[in-house]
Amino acid sequence: MLEFLRGRDVLVAGWGVSGRSLIEPLRDIGAHPVVTDNGAKALAEAAELGLEIATSVELENADLSRFALVITSPGWRPDSPVLVSAVTEGVPVWGDVEFAWWVDQARIYGPVRKWLVITGTNGKTTTTQMTHSILRAAGIASVACGNIGLPILDALRRNPGPQVLAVELSSFQLHWAPSVRPEAGVVLNVAEDHLDWHGGLDAYAAAKARALTGRVGVVGLDDPVAGALARKAKARRTVGFRIGVPADGELGVVDGKLLDRAFTKAAILAETSDISPPGPAGIADALAASALTRAIDVAPQFVKEGLAEHKVGPHRTAFVRELGGVEFIDDSKATNPHAARAAIMAHPQVVWVAGGLLKGAGVDDLIEEIGDRLVGAVLFGADAPVIAAAMARHAPEVPVIELDAGDDADMESSRSQRAEAVMGRAVRAAAGLARAGDTVLLAPAAASLDMYDDYTHRGRCFVDAVTALEDGDIGRAL
Questions:
Q1: Taking a C-beta distance cutoff of 8 angstroms, is the pair 216, 187 a contact?
Q2: Strongest mean pLDDT among 120-134, 141-155, 291-305
Q3: Terminal C-alpha separation, the chain
Q4: Per the omega criterion (within 30 degrees of 0), is the bond before 182 cis?
Q5: pLDDT at residue 347 greater than cutoff 80
Q6: What 3 state SS string does 406-419 have?
Q7: How many CA atoms lie within 13 A of 441 on its CB side?
Q8: In this structure, are residues 443 and 331 in contact, taking their beta carbons and an 8 Å threshold?
């Protein structure tokens, strides 16, 4: 199955976490890895480890037919020059997930695992963690891997190895993994995100739909785009879930209980009051995790136990503190409008802290829907003007404070110091707009990389700024 790589050169495009995970498996099957990356520091690190490297300039003038395969990091776009050249010369291009699939199928590291694949615009990580928690409760050797942080190849190489993989996959990873056929896969939802990478919503949705190609496909029926994928799914069986009364062949909610009518006539799985995070988004994720695990015959009592044991991770609708009757919530992981909507809809009165890189997504529909819940908004980052303009169109009565990145930090400050200063000012401004009973909610609706290292850095800055507040900061702008 992978014999064509033995004794051949394989180009590893991208020296990130996924790129590093490829090296030992390639060596284990007798291939010779060659690393390329757009960063000089990354190439220097690979060279220090004794790996052969190739710069982009060298590859421009090279005969790529020397490579039996190119394995790309998920972030590399299909129009990247190296990948275009490889395809032109007839060299196959795989993603690291595609390679991991074939490594598993070839039994390089033991028996073939069952893959439970989780994708969607929002809720992937929470659903993956819930799935893993249910599997643990059932006594099934499992691991959460993929986009959640642990590369799939590293999970496969564990000894003793897992029986089941709870695999979080992004649209990028799925684009580069056409062969993956999971035991069960779910598309939670599909909203505008990464449109600049995929070129449009249709291509983005098509990438997500690759999770629905195995034995059981699961779709979120409350999301119109994800729900529509059920009709096109290539899975042998497709089931849906909804936050409402389920029909036959669905999972849903009845009288505060998660109910399975897809894998049995009717089975109560859990109480909604036991779900973390609380609210509609958390319940939807719990239904998805329940469907995946029920698809491999996990008993209802273990679904209940696993969901009760699961606790939401940091920066995902995480409570920070209460001050002067105002709650402060960190949902820095809400990196697109769809995720921000879910966070805001869980609270009746919100001072919204938002901004960053919208990545081509629009916010008009979001603000039109949630405008009546907003008592104020504090905006920062590259696309703050876009959000402010949408606020003026759809919620003109809501007070808006728009910050500039240079407001609290001089040019001699580091990038991190400037980011921390802006967040500190944003939090103080939000506290000033709030009164008892309100929620100050960081739900940026945008990516973080214009100002922060990642969403966790942004969340930590928010938590630090909230921790520094004093009673007198609440409501001072009213």
A1: no
A2: 291-305
A3: 68
A4: no
A5: yes
A6: CCCCCCCCCHHHHH
A7: 29
A8: yes
Q: How confident is the model at residue 409 (pLDDT cuts 50, 70, 90)?
A: very low
Residue 309: what pLDDT? 94
**Could you give the angle at the alpha carbon of 391 between the alpha carbons of 387 and 396, nearest 5°?**
160
pLDDT over threshold 60, residue 378: yes
Report the distance separating Cα 303 and Cα 138, nearest Å.
8
268: buried, middle or exposed (CB in 10 Å: 19+, 13-18, 0-12)?
middle
pTM to 2 decimals?
0.75
Amino acid identity, residue 260?
Answer: D
Q: How would DSSP label each residue in 287-312? A: HHHHHHHHTTT--HHHHHHHHHH---
User: Which pLDDT belongs to residue 411?
Assistant: 45
> Span 116-125, mean pLDDT?
92
- Return all residues near 289 (Cβ < 8 A) that are at least 6 apart: 127, 130, 131, 133, 134, 303, 306, 307
Buried b / exposed e along 42-76 (16+ C-beta atoms within 10 A): bbebbeeeebebbeeeebeeeebeebbbbbbbbeb
What per-residue confidence (pLDDT) applies to 405?
55
Contact, 30 vs 5, CB < 8 A?
yes
Contact 182, 113 (CB under 8 A): no
CB atoms within 10 A of CB 160: 7
pLDDT digits (tens, 9 = 90+) for 196-255: 555 567 888 889 999 999 999 999 999 999 999 999 899 999 999 999 999 999 999 999
Question: Which of 423, 409, 421, 402 has the alpha carbon at shortest distance from 320?
Answer: 423
pLDDT number for residue 277: 85
What's residue 317's pLDDT? 83
What's the rounded Cα separation, in Å, for the pair 252 and 247? Answer: 8
Q: How far apart are CA 72 and CA 77, in angstroms?
A: 9
Distance in angstroms (rounded) separating the CA atoms of residues 189 and 185: 13
Cβ atoms of residues 476 and 428 within 8 Å: no
Distance from C-alpha of 289 to C-alpha of 311, rounded to nearest angstrom: 14
CA atoms within 13 A on the CB side of 429: 23
d(CA 156, CA 102): 11
* Residues whose CB falls within 8 Å of the CB of residue 249, separated by 6 or more in sequence, listed in order: 239, 240, 261, 262
pLDDT bracket for residue 276 (50, 70, 90): confident
Residue 160 preceded by cis peptide, ω within 30: yes
Give pLDDT tens digits for 421-467: 999 999 999 999 999 999 999 999 999 989 999 999 999 999 999 99
Q: Which stretch of DSSP H or E encloses residue 168?
A: strand 164-168
